[in-house]
Amino acid sequence: MLTSRKDEHLSVVLGQRHKKSGKTTGFEAIDFVHCALPEMKLDDVDVSTTFLGKRISAPLLVSSMTGGPKRAASINENLARACEDLRLPFAVGSQRIAIEESEYGGLGRSLRTLAPSVPILGNFGAAQLNLGFGLDEARKAVEMIDADAVYIHLNPLQEAVQPEGDRDWSGLFDKIVALSDALPVPVAIKEVGSGISATLAKRFVGAGITIIDVAGAGGTNWAAVEAARMKDPQRAALANAFSDWGIPTALAVADIRDACPDATVISSGGIRSGIDVAKSIRVGANLAGQAAGLLQAANTSADSLVDHFTNVIDELRICCFCTGSQDLEALRSAEIRRVLG
Questions:
Q1: Residue 313 belongs to a domain with what CATH number?
Q2: Is 96 labelled as part of a ligand binding site?
Q3: Where is FMN annotated to bind (predicted)?
Q4: Is 220 annotated as a binding residue?
Q5: Annotated binding residue at 159?
Q6: Does 282 show up as a binding residue in the annotation?
Q7: The pLDDT of residue 79
Q8: From the centroid of its chain, how far is CA 291?
Q9: Is 268 a known ligand-binding residue?
Q10: Could you give the number of structural domains in the chain?
């Protein structure tokens, strides 16, 4: 049933059969002030940075994508090849099936063989910690792909509306912190489309978990995705009632940066272009992550992904050039103005 559900999720997102959220990322309310005299060479713009101790070519992360084992295997292989080619980090989709059922879906050591030099992040849901997962399963998630870190994703809204959802979320903070203390690699926290508040981020950072992926509102809304696969109209209506739920990505990033100045903040949720990546960096992110925006390319070929990422990185570099920012540090203080609606 789990494998079938993951395949349904992928089909809904690829086919865009779910209700579109009326909530936006918030980046549309921000404009860079154009610099008509950059006084630099475009070729000298440097958008490289460091993540998990490795140098990457741009502040761009491939965020987690899911699917049943057969479809996921192809997607993961394409991601690994493209990310190694461009020196970009990537996070795999949920490893729950691989851990529970040994259907690896490309989530084996071959993934590290394809991408030996870039950061790879494992991934499983926080709710599984109340359903038998513990340190052994977390270690397996790391070891099966030789991960540099592991995402523990938070998706209470999706689980609440999903007919098969996991609804016991009691005591999870302490369990996540205990795993973080015991694992040999960093734990990173991410939402899946409803955002993380500054209050919660500050709790995690205070407990030693310093990588926060906001995965805010404005991108894929998983309540709406769940609604699209429901046969019961009443349950679908309940799920769709939350299609506008969540903290907009730009707001989540800015608030967490203010509250947690030393955290590694990843901006994801509706990141559609290199301009969105640039705005993410400007409001406080260290990196920006894409998932649904590159799913079609990931489902096609590694070459399609390379083309997609190359375009995103070119847009980011032009944003730097046209704000007079020679690198990401300069971009963080580029002049911006709020757009009046």
A1: 3.20.20.70
A2: yes
A3: 63-66, 94, 123, 190, 220, 270-272, 291-292
A4: yes
A5: yes
A6: no
A7: 92
A8: 6
A9: no
A10: 1
